[in-house]
Structures are given as structure tokens and as C-alpha cells.
Design goal:
The protein contains three helices and no strands. It is mainly α and 83 residues long.
């Protein structure tokens, strides 16, 4: 595993940790194919609030458009995170 792959996985884990904390669940309860709207029942206002959480952590959210993000994996893609 290359250094960039380790960084990406750590970053994905960090996003999952932040999401789990925001939702009040455990990291292992979050799968990449989970729907933010359907599985986690996040509304537009909650997605906007979560964006602020990401920004507070220094994560660039300029590429996020939650109208085009349905799953956790799509969130990773929008943040330009890869495996």
C-alpha cells in the first residue's frame, strides 16, 4: 500500500468518524453504499450542517453538491477521495 493510499484510507475513515459522530452511530455501522437520505434520514439542512462539520475539520467542501450525492461513496468521490 502506497503512502497516498494510506492517506486516502485514513481520510475516508476520518470522514466516516465525523459522520458517525454527527449521526450518533458507530463507524462500523456506515457502509460506502449507504444512502445519506434513505439509510441515515439526512435532510438538506442536516447535510448543510455536516458540511460545516467537515469545514471545521479543515476539509475542503467546495466540490460538495448534496443534490448530486446520494451515498457515502459518492460523498468520498465528491471530496476526491479514492481507495
Amino acid at each position: 500500500m502506497s503512502t497516498s493510499e494510506k492517506v486516502a484510507k485514513i481520510t475516508k475513515l476520518k470522514i466516516k468518524e465525523l459522520l458517525a459522530d454527527y449521526l450518533g452511530t458507530e463507524v462500523d455501522e456506515i457502509a460506502e453504499d449507504d444512502s445519506l437520505r434513505e439509510d441515515f434520514h439526512m435532510k438538506a439542512t442536516e447535510m448543510a450542517d455536516f458540511t460545516e462539520v467537515l469545514e471545521t475539520e479543515g476539509i475542503n467542501t467546495s466540490s460538495l453538491d448534496f443534490t448530486n450525492i446520494e451515498t457515502v461513496e459518492e460523498l468520498f468521490d465528491a471530496l476526491n477521495l479514492s481507495d
